[in-house]
């Protein structure tokens, strides 16, 4: 912590030096192969990794360094766009890698890891891309092997618990060895370019902030729709469900970024202080509110893009009460957002992959065009996170022409998008930003303990409410936007989901 004795320990002591070793747990896993190794390669390609950085990979599989390097090269060939695979860059990256086979649950084996890592004096960044059930022993093993000292940072992948109690348990185990300023909790949505661009849009322009409140905004919609189903993560997903898999982390982070007050600077403490205030101001959706403010669903057999898709229970191999879809109507109880609903929805096997935030502004107070028969639509700001990354402001404009009987208006998008402005920039994987920040020691885009715990507190109330009201997921056919009750959730307020 900061030694200044005047900031109540809130100010992080930022470790300015880049780490010279990255220790990657779970290096043979899906996340490492699909995202982490390609991200590290991308950083290396662009000359962003410290020249001397070594990457020590570890997992249970009985491989040696040569075999791991071959597997890593295979992963790059599969998951990196061929345009960016340059022989020289691949060879340079692969040469950074070494591998140590280790059963992370056996604390006695960590000595071998310490040997491979060597001195931590010049900074060690550790990334746990393993199941959370391994976190406690891993942390104990690292400590015992001398891999947890002052120059060591620890990054943890989600899920950080399954409820507030288990999350506290993990956080306590981490905090016993790694102080908060050296703990980097990953939410990969914070690494997405458009998510960071949301902050630039809000706080880099004079235009939006004066309107960014209940006086001018009617409601906010946040949609994270996926076409994929279980993708082989049977045990994990069925024990988790959409609320805990997506809302607890990614969607609440998006909501917090939309709703937060301007931090006085773009730095870790200030940004996270503002986000946590929003999370704490979320009105609980408890047993008295779950039936009106939440809808859950589970996909049945259907079709997406013309291809037949089996039901969730069929993919799982047994009946289940787990929700694969959730829609919520949330409120942030503070002055800025008084009376403004935040509608959230996420689900698997929806018609298209689409993540977006829609800010629906209120209509103009009086239409001067009504007497001429022209209809006005209220402005809408649409922030597309994926698959397209762009920001559009829907505005009203005059339809060109000499209309004798009046004036015709139409809705036109003002494209504030990155697609055109940065057409020559390589689209980065979200983990590139996060891995670079971990290596360099900047925690701004990582989630602080109080944020995670505020998120869980809100989620636990919803789950307890569902249990108290014996709510079970409603069926929806794969390829639809969830059960019809999710449409009714907004239509009751005269609002339609933006599609
Ligand atoms: N995959 C994804 O898209 C996402 C994953 N996550 C989270 O990231 C973490 C990793 O996910 P993912 O890569 O998909 O999981 P996988 O099951 O594909 O990989 C798990 C990794 O952990 C290693 N491992 C398992 N048990 C041990 C052990 N006892 N000792 C040492 N290593 C062990 C495996 O090694 P080996 O194979 O050699 O046994 C493997 O490298 C999970 O917590 C997951 O929830 C979060 C967001 C997205
Ligand atoms: O964390 C998770 O995120 C993915 C969706 O990530 P995205 O970047 O592709 O939007 C989701 O599929 C997965 O279930 C969840 O665990």
UniProtKB/TrEMBL annotation:
It catalyses: D-glucose 6-phosphate + NADP(+) = 6-phospho-D-glucono-1,5-lactone + NADPH + H(+). It comes from the Bacteria. The keyword Oxidoreductase applies. Keywords: Carbohydrate metabolism, Glucose metabolism, NADP, Oxidoreductase. InterPro entries: G6P_DH, G6P_DH_AS, G6P_DH_C, G6P_DH_NAD-bd, NAD(P)-bd_dom_sf. It is an enzyme of class 1 (oxidoreductase). Residues 199-498 form the Glucose-6-phosphate dehydrogenase C-terminal domain. One of its GO terms (molecular function) is NADP binding. Residues 24-197 form the Glucose-6-phosphate dehydrogenase NAD-binding domain. Belongs to the glucose-6-phosphate dehydrogenase family. NADP(+) binds at residues 60, 158. Catalyzes the oxidation of glucose 6-phosphate to 6-phosphogluconolactone. The active site is at 250 (proton acceptor). Substrate binds at residues 188, 192, 226, 245, 348. GO terms for cellular component: cytosol. This is Glucose-6-phosphate 1-dehydrogenase. Its EC number is 1.1.1.49. GO terms for biological process: glucose metabolic process; pentose-phosphate shunt, oxidative branch. The gene is zwf. Pfam families: G6PD_C, G6PD_N. Pathway: Carbohydrate degradation; pentose phosphate pathway; D-ribulose 5-phosphate from D-glucose 6-phosphate (oxidative stage): step 1/3. PROSITE patterns: G6P_DEHYDROGENASE. Coiled coil: none annotated.
